[in-house]
Structures are given as structure tokens and as C-alpha cells.
Amino acid sequence: MSNITWGIIGCGNVTEKKSGPAFNKVPNSKLIAVMRRNAEKAADYARRHNVPKWYNDGEQLLNDPEINSVYVATPPASHIDYTLAALKKGLNVYIEKPITLNAAEAIAIADAVKQSTGKVSIAHYRRGQPMFLYVKELLDTNAIGDVRLAQIKMWQSLRPQLITHLEDNWRINPALSGGGYFHDLSPHQLDLMLFFFGEPEYYNGRALNQSGYYGCDDNVSGQIIFKNKVVVDGSWSFNVAEHERIDECKIIGSKGSISFPVFGHAVTIKTTDKEETINFAPLEHVQQPMIEKVVNYFNGDGDTPCAIDEAVVLMKIMDAFSQPI
């Protein structure tokens, strides 16, 4: 296998620990260059992470002859432009979630992939983590019988502790993020539902701004019915009291249930005759298992761990859930 040589476009907070260092830790992978519009911050990142090159212009990074793959880690508003430019040059692209502002942009990327020699995979990285692979194995082996429904609860305060709060707080600027905190956090839960249950048949929802604290929705809910008849109900609220915070996904079957926090490290299995909690060690770099799978895919060794077509479906669901009442 040859080396996948990476350039990162957007070396912000998400790349400090969650993803960036992993590109030099998986086999057949090397981080060559990083780009950030702020030249001082780009140079600082390259120095601290021992990256050979840095740029403050995306086009310059895309034209670097040493790079064959790009990780797009900017806010979602610029994902489509950088991805289309990279695909036009035949580069592979690994795209942060949410892949785009909306489904229409995701479809445009899917169309571009068909015309390019480059490959695309999406950073729905929980698909690679041992905890969620364990949940999938439980479901695939009917550990709780036939799955009936799943309930997602993501309730947080006006300033969620799960979020890194930056000066510009782009996550609550719909022009940059696509919506509010729902757009930043729900891809983790909703993609897991697609990973676990397959193709959806129906989805609908609604969004509203209850608190008026910022100019986007802070309460979103929706329902998905999958072709295998599994029903998923989700609730995302970002205006509750601190003591009401919850992060839980509960999957109920004909013989028991599986529950876990999407941003935690334990899975609880309940059946008629026992209850067991399995704890998982936190990962040093949460995206590393996914990046390893992506590197293998880009090298022609296996399928994509998250295909562009699945990301299109996810964005369609998010669009449906985000409809104002």
C-alpha cells in the first residue's frame, strides 16, 4: 500500500486532539500540510504538531504536489467549495460533519464524486469506535430481540458543555453552520441510527426558537421510520436547566433494551433476566479508528466507512427536522 498524504483545510479546535494527530498515527498515512486563513495560527499549528508545511490559502494547499488527500475541517458553509475544488483535481476528500449546510449541497458533492477520480468519505467517526461497534453487534445478534423503537434525548443548557465555545461561536450562525447546536450535534446521533438500522422510509420533524437567546432554533424534534419498521423518536433541546441535562439513546427491543450516551463511554443492556453495563476506555483521538478505515479505503483496501450517499440521506433528515413550525 502507498502512503495517503494529507492536507488539512481548517486546522481549528476539532483538529487539535480529536483528529489531527491521528493522521500520523495510522499506517500508510502522513500529514503533509495544514491551512488556515489566519497565517499566524496556521504556522503555530504546524509548529506545535510537527507538520512540514502550512498555508493560509486553500488553493495553494490543493495545488501542493505532495498531497493526494484532503481533510476538510472548516465550518460547514465552506465544505462544498473546498470539496468540489479538491475533487476537480482528483484528490480524495474526508469531510467533517455535517457534510454541508443542507441536502442540496450534499447532492452536489455526490454528483461531483461520480465525475472525479477522487474518493470521498464522511467523518461520522462514531462508526469506527469500539463502543458503537459493540452496540451494532448486539443489534445484529438480536441480543434484545426484534428492535421496536429508539429514543434520542439530547437536552443541554443555553451554553452546552459538550461544545467548545469559541469567540465567533459559528455553531449558532446558520449562515456558517446550517442551523444551531442541533446541526452540530445531531449528526452524531442520526448517523448512528442509519448505521444501525439501514434505509429510512419516512422522516419528519419541526424546529423552533423557544428562548430567543440567539438567532436560530434551540428546540428540534423528529421521527424516522425505517424500512425494517424500527421507529426512532428524537428530541434536541438547548435551553434547559443545567440539572436537566441528558445525553441518552435508548433502543428498545422485544426482549430488552440497550442504552448509552452518545458522548459517553458506557453501554447498558437490560433483558428479562439480567442487567449489565460495559464501560469503554476513552480514546486519545476519537477519530483515529475512522481515519484508519478511510486511509484503507483511499488505498483501495475495502469499502468506504461512510459513503456520500449516506450523508445525503442524513442531510435530508436534518432538513426535514429543521423545518420551522
UniProtKB/TrEMBL annotation:
Alphabetical keyword list: Oxidoreductase
Domain GFO/IDH/MocA-like oxidoreductase residues, every copy: 132-258
Question: Origin organism of this chain?
Answer: Mucilaginibacter corticis
- Which PANTHER family does the record associate with it? BCDNA.GH03377
Q: Which InterPro entries match?
A: Gfo/Idh/MocA-like_OxRdtase_N, Gfo/Idh/MocA_oxidrdct_glycsds, GFO_IDH_MocA-like_dom, NAD(P)-bd_dom_sf
The residue ranges of the Gfo/Idh/MocA-like oxidoreductase N-terminal domain are 5-124
Q: Annotated Gene Ontology MF terms?
A: nucleotide binding; oxidoreductase activity
Pfam families, alphabetically? GFO_IDH_MocA, GFO_IDH_MocA_C3
Q: Which domain of life is it from?
A: Bacteria
Secretion signal, residue range per the UniProt entry: none
According to UniProt, the name of this protein is Gfo/Idh/MocA family oxidoreductase
